[in-house]
Amino acid sequence: MPRPTRPAARRAAAVVLAAAAVSASAGCAVSPVVNQFSTELQYAPSDGVQAYFPLSETDEEGPGTALLVRNLLLIGPEEDGPARLYGVLVNDSLDEVVVEISGPGGLSGEVTVPARSSVPLGEQQTEDLGSQELPEGAEVSGDLLADPVGAVPGELVPVTMVLDGAVLEVETPLLNGSLPEYQTLVPTAASTTPGVAR
């Protein structure tokens, strides 16, 4: 059997090495078993936290529904001072839901979220943001202000939500106004008047 010439042997070796390099590098980069795709990771994209109440299970009629709690956080000016609860409740079901919210320092309220809509918490009564339009049928009542909050900025504060008897306790971050985007959301003496829905 004739031996391959030197150039042919070199080409064959180069092809084998290139194939090995491509398969080794491609295997690490695209394997969802080894490296999960970053677009598949579930995470809170802001400083607040996320939670949810399942409302229905996935079945042959379609996917399940839930009340989604998005970007929940408390903002207050100082240690153990007043702090307002912010976030958004998103109802992706076909039925209206009513959520009771409670926390430290007298934080207590009730939020009605119409079907297929979202309701912001805290923002609709903040002067700097102006009056936020709520969806038709939505209502936020009570006082979503913890005064005092009983924690230091940077700590987690338990906030309890109740929906149809199901209880969800959310460890909610307490932030101050050191970041520019939160400076206008810090409660002031004028914004902590008792008896005003927030």
From TrEMBL:
Superkingdom classification of source: Bacteria
Signal sequence coordinates: 1-26
Keywords of the record: Signal
Protein name stated in the entry: Copper(I)-binding protein
